[in-house]
């Protein structure tokens, strides 16, 4: 995929193979009356939640390795 160029049919198929299973999983967990728009809203919220959790995990990992000073830290 190159910026500024139209997607090829193969690229669209590849992306759809990644996206639709996620959509189907989220949609299957919603009530029967839920619309496609409802599903997309839930997916957006899940994406934000996932981003926050990833950032928190990275922050926790950074705390473990962060040491400012010289030599080994002592207790």
What does this structure look like?
- The protein has 75 residues and is an all-alpha fold.
- The chain has a domain at 9-53.
- It has helices at 9-28, 36-65.
- The protein is flat.
Radius of gyration: 21 Å
- The tally of helices reads 2
Helix content: 55-70%
**pLDDT averaged residue by residue:** 88
Strand percent estimate = under 5%
SSE pattern, N- to C-terminal: HH
Give the SSE layout.
Layout: H1 9-28, H2 36-65
Provide tags for this entry:
flat; 2 helices; 75 residues; mainly alpha; 0% strand
Summarize it.
By secondary structure, the protein is an all-alpha fold. The chain has helices spanning 9-28, 36-65.
